[in-house]
Amino acid sequence: MSTLLTVRDLRVRYSVRGGFVDVVHGVSLDINRGETTAIVGESGSGKTTLAMALCGLAPIHGGEVRLDGEMLKQDRKNRLNPDRKRVALMFQDPVGSLNPRMTVRRALAEPFRIHGSDAQSPDKEALRLLSMVGLGDDFADRYPHQLSGGQARRVGVARALALRPDVLIADEPTAGLDVSIQGEILNLLSRLQKEMGVGILMITHNLNVVRHVADQMAIMYLGRFIEQGNSQQIFDQPRHPYTAALLSANPSPDPDAQSSQIELKGDVPSLLQRPSGCEFHTRCPRAKVQCRNAFPELTATNGNQQFNCFFPMGE
Amino acid sequence: MNPPVLDIQGLSINYQTELGPLQALRDVNLVVPEGKIIGIVGESGCGKSTLISAIIRLLAPNAQIKQGSVNFKGKDLLSLSPEQMRSLRGDEISMVFQDPMTSLNPVLTIGRQMSDVQHRNTSSRSEKNARSLMMLERVGIPDPETQLQRYPHHLSGGMRQRVAIAMALMAEPALLIADEPTTALDATLEVQIIHRLKELQREFGCSILFISHHLGVIAELCDEVVVMYAGEVVESGSLREVFIDPKHPYTQKLLECDPARIAQPTRELPVIEGSLPNLVNLPAGCIFRERCSHAMTRCSAERPVLSGGHHQAACHLLESSP
Questions:
Q1: Which pTM was predicted?
Q2: Do B163 and B183 belong to one domain?
Q3: How close B6 comes to chain A (CA, Å)?
Q4: Domains in chain A: how many in total?
């Protein structure tokens, strides 16, 4: 499996009145060709900011990102400058991310107009993309408001994959969709991934989705990855107490399921006042004195699972 | 047993559109017994939102109530004057909306908004404040005194939704309508909110009408479930009846599609083939026929009606096999 995108110690810092906040606080990650890596975490944990930074839409404060081994340059505003033909983004709000005054045809032809391409005609390409995502030619002349949520997502998928990128960053690709439509979109992404070999970074808080489609996963808390690795392995044996709580919190549709939910007390601390030591100690059911005073270094298991915890689950 | 808090019978609602009337709800029956949590499950476009808007009488101007009754504690809500209706909203019937970001006023403090919803109460400002404080404590907001001075943007999504719940329960309503209150939240917060809602429901003894397309949340919270498809109720019963032994082919499909139910990870997730029928030109017979793998000739001719005891489903299969 070849590594496409290598992220090392990436930081995103915003200045605020009287100081700064580190929204992404030293994140490292690999995205492999043909694989899906999922990032899960509560809102405000920095998932979307990470996606934006990787696409060059948010300034970075430190760290490096390599695409196929080549270091990405930064522009004058410290934003990464990836080749946009190679790194594509699928936005969270499918209707909001389409121009309301552009027909689907124009929206889909736009990437070709901007980047120029050897394709015969952008209009023809637009129709090809539509059929690729399972929409008929009659959708070409519709406007975004004439699309349902699922259809708008399909257009979003088509537009993101138009220039055959190597990496697709999908921010909440199924949020707000019904289970059946959600299945359709995920199946579509899986099929296209197989055909095109694109590496997908999927941001979501739907753990049921992650379990089915992700090869690798990373759990984000206050801008850091507190655990990452093979998703099957993490689902089978989460090591960080936060991961364990997150996985156990997933409500089961089986009325007879024995509820073994680990309920976390309190709220996510503010990024402006990061807790000392292990940043999860304020809510952790396993926290001891040590957790308040020292930051737990990264522990790696033999099966590529990594976590930051002094008292991991199962020990 | 006390009479139900909410009793909807034969409700049909059309929307006037350029192409003709869109039949958004057809002959919907729904009963919310006292002190119970009823879940409404269904995909977008199934009429959930129209149904709630009809109950609180906030339908879009192009909606037209064709027939039916909405009975709330013995009053027919459909025949009340706008003034009478307004005095019920936020007092006896209150609502928690999907998006806690937009349901609070961004330019007023939490405290001001919480006092404002007590406008019917003639007590002094300090008494109202004390009550707001107590409610914030009840929903588990840390340091409530400080929070009263803060604005919605200071609070996280989970806190905002708890504030919205506190405000909705302030008047101790008989019926709380919650429209996908946890979709904007993450798993751990979702569980927190659901547990809190369940506790508060026991404490206040109100009934809850809970709308969601998250089957796990419904299973966690509700006593009874109503399944809607394309403007009709296709199945209803207790949570266990519907989730463990679904009778209607749509309910069966919907449950099968839930990735949470599929133990073995798969890249090929099940879907319900086809799309929703056009509600302007309704097909004859069963509304789910075109997507149903069990469809028979009878299904295209005759519309099935709900049958069965407490656990009801509208499907011809159930009539032919006793």
A1: 0.87
A2: no
A3: 25
A4: 1
